[in-house]
Amino acid sequence: QVQLVESGGGLVQAGGSLRLSCVASGRAIVYDMGWFRQAPGKEREFVAAISWRGGNTRYADSVKGRFTASRDNAKNTVYLQMNSLKPEDTAVYYCAQSIRIGIPSRVDEYDYWGQGTQVTVSS
Length: 123
Prior knowledge:
There is one protein chain. A hairpin with a 6-residue loop joins β4 and β5. By secondary structure, the chain is mainly beta. It has no helices and 11 strands. Strands 2, 4, 5, 6, 9, 10 and 11 form a 7-stranded mixed β-sheet that branches.
């Protein structure tokens, strides 16, 4: 069983930055990892994904150029650097692990999920 624990969320002003971390335990994160977010009243949506070696990434259009996914497999940790944050980025952010290849972007393509961390961007 895999456990994923996110951290790094918080309250930030528009234009600011945050870095989220996701630590995996139970087994090494030698799988593609994704970041998703869910705002109140909305469905969970894809944010970013990174291949298991870190060489390939994928981003939602809404965050492209502002967010960067990275990973340190030696630390079983993935990161999401979020810059130029906007109020519309406010959501609970989740990391997830997929046993599929191809840095998937759909919620149903991920097998393990963290509990989420709140990100609030004030205007």
